[in-house]
Amino acid sequence: MLNIKHTICPSCSVGCGINIVSNGGKVLGTYPYKRHPINEGKNCLNGRGSVEQFEKRIISPSLVKNDELVESDNETVINLIKDKLSSINSDELCIICSGKNTIEEFEVIKKFAESFGTDKIGFYGYNFPNFDGELASYDDISNAKTILAIGDVLRENPLIGRRVIISKENGGTLISVDTVEKSNTALNSSEHIKVDSIGEFINDMGEIKDKLDGETVILINKIEDKDYFNPLKELAAKTGAKFLPIYKEANIKGAMRYLTSLDAEEIKKFIADSKALITVNTNLLDFLSKEDIKGKSFIINISNFEDDFTRLSDLVLPGKPWTEKSGSFINSEGLKQEFISSVISDDENLSEIEIFDKLT
Ligand code: SF4
């Protein structure tokens, strides 16, 4: 029988509602959540495609031998992890999470790290550092007189892009900044500034500064270095502009409340200094090279889907995909959104929370 359940889109940090269509525990597809106040009945292609990765789903706990996953079981893999952890010092364990983890998972994983005694824990934050402070709301974007968009917000976060278009329809001006000549945001802007790096633009904004005021919203979804972030935030504070970073993963804002945002170099150093590495729903090859990882540490990979990093690991536990768990994400504008599992599966895989409970 067809089952349709509301949940939150995992494909970026906007926090759109999405419906999961399933049959007998198998995800068949998605369709937009009509009454959700953020996306008002629309989902972008990234959101609609968020279930395509299910084709590469890892079906059981596994050992990795000669770059191939060899099927095992929970007890064997958990015992092997316990053996490994009992053979190292507390500061030789490093844990890398991601913005795909729920708030509830961060709480349990952080507790595990504290009880083990390691402070080498964090998540890859795409060069956005932890920060506090007031944020622009999504309504502020629709009502802005000027929008400065850094990165291709219209292509990568289309439901924020929709708010940008509403601002334009109300007479607002869109200024685009990117390292590429052509982008969806550039095409819709009244001024596109092509730069060699976002950092170069942030350090030298020229006349753009004079166009920013209390009716401006600065959107940013791309930054190459954590050091560029504070100057941008200070500029927003000085000009009175509102400010909103948008992230590639649904719960980066939530991750910032619990863990340290790490960049690629910091993660590389953590790995080099560790004898065991636990990764949770992240593919380190998205930002490190094989040489940075292979042979450096014993890798325990908690991951729902097979990728090139899974085959570099030593042990794999599948955890549960977001469709099969309940929890909460915090979206870009700081709204905590709870969701419940939309599919019941009959596999015996442990959830991320159950895995860390067994290891604590
Ligand atoms: S804008 Fe982001 S959250 Fe909304 S549907 Fe697209 S990928 Fe999902």
From TrEMBL:
<protein>
    <submittedName>
        <fullName>Formate dehydrogenase alpha subunit FdhA</fullName>
    </submittedName>
</protein>
<dbReference type="Pfam" id="PF04879">
    <property type="entry name" value="Molybdop_Fe4S4"/>
</dbReference>
<feature type="domain" description="4Fe-4S Mo/W bis-MGD-type">
    <location>
        <begin position="2"/>
        <end position="58"/>
    </location>
</feature>
<dbReference type="InterPro" id="IPR006963">
    <property type="entry name" value="Mopterin_OxRdtase_4Fe-4S_dom"/>
</dbReference>
<dbReference type="GO" id="GO:0016020">
    <property type="term" value="C:membrane"/>
</dbReference>
<dbReference type="GO" id="GO:0051539">
    <property type="term" value="F:4 iron, 4 sulfur cluster binding"/>
</dbReference>
<dbReference type="InterPro" id="IPR050123">
    <property type="entry name" value="Prok_molybdopt-oxidoreductase"/>
</dbReference>
<dbReference type="GO" id="GO:0003954">
    <property type="term" value="F:NADH dehydrogenase activity"/>
</dbReference>
<keyword id="KW-0411">Iron-sulfur</keyword>
<keyword id="KW-0408">Iron</keyword>
<keyword id="KW-0560">Oxidoreductase</keyword>
<keyword id="KW-0004">4Fe-4S</keyword>
<keyword id="KW-0479">Metal-binding</keyword>
<dbReference type="GO" id="GO:0046872">
    <property type="term" value="F:metal ion binding"/>
</dbReference>
<dbReference type="GO" id="GO:0022904">
    <property type="term" value="P:respiratory electron transport chain"/>
</dbReference>
